[in-house]
Amino acid sequence: MSRTGQAWRGGVYLLGSLMSGAATVLVLPLLFHPRLARLWANWHRDRAGRLLGTPLEPRPARRRWADAATPRDLLWLPVNALTGLALGLPALLCVGNIVVAAIATPLWWAFRPVDRPRLFVDVPVTGWATALTLGPLQIVLLAAVAYLAFRPIARAHARICLAVLSHSTAEELAERVEVLTRTRADVLDAHGAELRRIERDLHDGTQARLVATAMRLAVARQAFADDPRDEAFVEGLLRDAHEGIEEAMTELRDVIRSVYPPILADRGLAGALTAVTTRCGVPTRLTIGDLDRVPAAVEVVVYFAVAEALTNVAKHSRATAAGVRVDRAGDRLSAVITDNGTGGADDSRGTGIAGIRRRVLALDGTVDVDSPTGGPTTITVELPCGS
Fold first, then answer.
1. Mean per-residue pLDDT, 119-130
2. Which of 34, 167, 313, 349 has the most neighbouring CB atoms within 10 Å?
């Protein structure tokens, strides 16, 4: 970006800081609410990061409050009020006086004598000589001040913001431990639920069919021993037993597939995702970058995340098109699933996103859902996959 563009961007930032500082003073009691304080701090933190060109990691949610405030978020309220007003007001005066000079130079005569604009604070414009000399001079001088000062002042404010809102090493470690503790509990719950599901499927499905088949074979054996000539009856029992074994094998394959999809072993992640997108009821475009070697656990999570997300698209979104993009940057693998449907995807509505989130968090990954009402929906999954 050119220096002029940076000065312009700095001026916009400073004027925004002035307004946010004034807003902080006006609604300070409301901003002490834990969630509002965190949202207010996050907005300033992201805004400062964009100005400085510093990518910021999303801050994890707290245990008891979704986005609850920290002491640093509360500290930022008075700091923002002070720095926003102190640094933003000079920028407003500079810009305002440029506007005054730009209006006064050609239109001074349109004002009543008592209302005529003043240049350089207290010099009234009473004639063309004053307007054509002091007006452009004021514009040039203040524009030079803005050109030279807006960028460093804005960056100074942004650094103050990040200095206040950036966590110390101890705080980051504490948040990290909290997230890992919560993730471990979720993983244990999910693991227990998965084991119970597998046990139920095996007990109620496969085992029941095998028991029924064993009983039919026992009856057939006894019937053959009692009357070898009753071939029709024995044949019927054997046929039922054969069908029962095939059904049990089908159910057993389904259980195995839910643990580790065989298609991943047969075709790899790219082939498995191709099969999933092909079977989706909504036309889906698949884009896969250079993934290199991906750990098996990550492949399983990505496969199930994409499969579940596309199932949601087909069932709930009323979309006419979807897309899946899987790529890798360093040790992070990302999967982005999009659709042009009606949006409104929410964990609490039983759309399967909660299951995706549990699987991803189990591997220390992240899930971001952007699904405004009316659409479109974008689900971004990121997972560490080693170097």
1. 76
2. 313
